[in-house]
Amino acid sequence: MYEYIETSEPRPGVGQVTLNRPKALNALCTPLITELNTALQAFDSSPSISAIVLTGSERAFAAGADIKEMAPLTFSEAYTNSFIESWSLLTTTIKKPIIAAVSGHALGGGCELALMCDILYCTEKANFGQPEIKLGTVPGAGGSQRLTRAIGKARAMELILTGKNFTGLEAGSWGVAARTFPTYEELMEGALSTAETIAGHSKVAVMAAKEVVNKSQDLALRDGVEYERRVFHSLFGSQDQKIGMTAFAEKKKAEWTHK
Fold it and tell me: Where are the bilayer-spanning segments (predicted)?
C-alpha cells in the first residue's frame, strides 16, 4: 500500500508507523510525508486504535530532509507551494497520542519530526541535531521553536548556530526525551508498552488529556488553567467518567465504552 512507510498494529489498541526509506536513511521527502499523514489519519479515525508509535530503523529515525528535493527550489516555488507545511499536519489534525521511538540519526527534519510527537523515547546513542546552518539555511519545520521550548534559548541557540549534534543521553537529561534506553530492542518494547498502557485508558479522556497538555504550550498559565478546567468539566458529560469513578469507588476494573 505504501512505498516509503510501513504500518502495523503490534499491540491491542496500538498502531505503528515505520519510516522505510533505508537507502536514504529515511530522509524525509514530500511523498514520504504524504504517506505518513495518510497513515496517521487512518489510525486516528480507526475505532480500534487509541495510541500510535512512530519510528524508523535501528540505524536512523530520519537522517534529515531530502536535500536533492530542496536544493533546486526558488523562493517563489517554496513560498507559493507552502513547501514542508504539510509536515506539521500531525500536530494539528491527529487527536490520538503519538510516541516517537528514535534510534540512530534524527537530524534536521528528522529531529523536527520527532519533536512534533507527543512523547519522545530514544536510545542512549541516538544522534539528534539541527545542522541546517551548515547548508546556508535554518530549521524550517518548527525546529527553532520546539527545540527552544524543550531545552531553553541558550542551549538551542548554541546547537542551531553551530550545527552541533547531541546524544540520546543528552536528550534525556535536557528534557527532550521522556525516557532513554540502552538498546534498540528495549526502546521499541518501551514505546509499545507505553502505547499499550495509554490504549487501555478511556479514549475520550486520553484525547482530552493530550489537548490540555498541548494548550499549555500556546496559552499563558492563567488562560491554560481555565481551559483545562472547562475540558475537565466537559468530561462529566461522558459515559467513561461515570464508569471510571464508579469502578474506583467499587474497587473494580473500569470497562470503558469510549463514549
Answer: none
